[in-house]
Give the backbone structure.
Amino acid sequence: MYRTVIFDLDGTLLNTIEDLAAAGNHVCRENGWPEYSVAEFQQMVGHGIPNLVRQFSPEDCRSPLMVANTVVQFSDYYGAHNMDKTAPYPGIPAMLARLKAAGVHLAVYSNKADEFSQTIIRHYFPDIFDLVRGKLPGVPVKPDPTGVRQVLETLGAAAPDTLFVGDSDTDMDTAHNAGLAACGVTWGFRDRQVLVDAGAELLADTVEQLETYILEH
């Protein structure tokens, strides 16, 4: 059994894409910019809000100051609407409850801003996680391993006993950069082949498979 499991948030625990896309398109409309489909936003997310904003902003609106101002626009709207359509993937809440009951230490590590990560996890998964950590000032975004190493240190967790679970190549790279095994889930925002190419040690097509991997390791 893995003693500690660190989960990505967006595309792994929660399907957040419609609320992220709605916030992005709200900003685009406010600024008179072209809008994007949900599928297009699905390929943009995963690297933190500033990077998302930079991608949907026109090329001549990507100066540091303009991106900073657009991040404020995005965050104001997303903060008010980040649970309009967001929902856990089927089976996730029950699986987490069983893992917790089995004595597995559970954590979340996300490139989503820490304030949003804390609020959303507290709403959908109250009293489940031992630690929730989003993007904090001064800590590089994934796939840099700094934040994950801080999570391990805070929990007193050993790398060989820890599994990182995510839906993207960024997550797989993060795990490997931190010396952790990586499990890719195929119900999220990236294709299965992306996870294979990123060297995922495990692939879970269902929540049941994921639970088995964790408990029978």
Notes: Residues 64-81 form the longest helix (18 residues). The two ends are 4 Å apart (CA to CA).
